[in-house]
Amino acid sequence: ISIKSLSKIYKSKHNEVKAVDHLNLNIKNGEIFGVIGYSGAGKSTFIRLLNRLEEPTEGEITINGKDITKLGSRSLRKERQKIGMIFQHFNLLWSRTVLENISFPLEIAGVPRDERKKKVLELIKLVGLSGRENYYPSQLSGGQKQRVGIARALANDPDVLLCDEATSALDPQTTDDILDLLVDINNKLGLTIILITHEMHVIQKICHRVAVMEGGKVIEQGDALDVFMHP
Ligand code: ADP
Ligand code: ADP
């Protein structure tokens, strides 16, 4: 993933906010890359630009050789299937079971019923939710809800998993369990994981490399160990 001079300016009548400001970054295939920074640094805007939940004001985002900022709506839909995302508040459908939530992106992608069922059961096993297939989100703990979110994000075999403060609503033990699961998934599936967080601990526990954001810019980057080992 190669990001060149990426900017997002929010304009209103009275002011403009440079949420992301000429940001440059390269993320390698298969790495766990962390973006850390205080509230308001632009992290959330940045990660939403990566799957075009936000439209950039300027710049390029090249994923596997394709500049996704240039895609029309049809090819964008296809590319988006290769980018999974998980959220702080899980964003599950409350009237649907675990199985139905995970199945949802496969339905949208037009995967036949039998194939869907097989894939969903594989995913449920992968994230450790066997036996909970027919539970509703309201019957699950926070950690279990995030496991559903992860399984749903993996349904279309993405190359990239974006994590937006994915453990910020969880207690420390559950946070560790979810981070272990992300490492496990990174090992087993080899996909690239990009996570944003305001928690140093999350970065130190699982990230290979890290960028520190402030005022919409990357102010420091490097191996996770080096960045946090300054005198
Ligand atoms: P972080 O995720 O690091 O807390 P954000 O990306 O949410 O940072 O926000 C970066 C800046 O952009 C902040 O000043 C925020 O107020 C502003 N911002 C974010 N979203 C919007 C929006 N939809 N409209 C206007 N300003 C926004
Ligand atoms: P349907 O199965 O009819 O498509 P949904 O499962 O999308 O319905 O949503 C059922 C209800 O749950 C709606 O009122 C919706 O607003 C609410 N809901 C869905 N997702 C969330 C969420 N992430 N957080 C809170 N409420 C939600």
Automatic annotation (TrEMBL):
Keyword Membrane attached: yes
Keyword list, A-Z: Amino-acid transport, ATP-binding, Cell membrane, Membrane, Nucleotide-binding, Translocase, Transport
GO cellular component, one term: plasma membrane
Family to which the UniProt record says this protein belongs: Belongs to the ABC transporter superfamily.
ABC transporter domain location: 1-231
Keyword field contains Cell inner membrane: no
The protein, known as: D-methionine transport system ATP-binding protein
Highest rank taxon of the organism: Bacteria
Any GO molecular function: ATP hydrolysis activity
Record-level GO BP terms: amino acid transport
Species the sequence originates in: Salirhabdus euzebyi
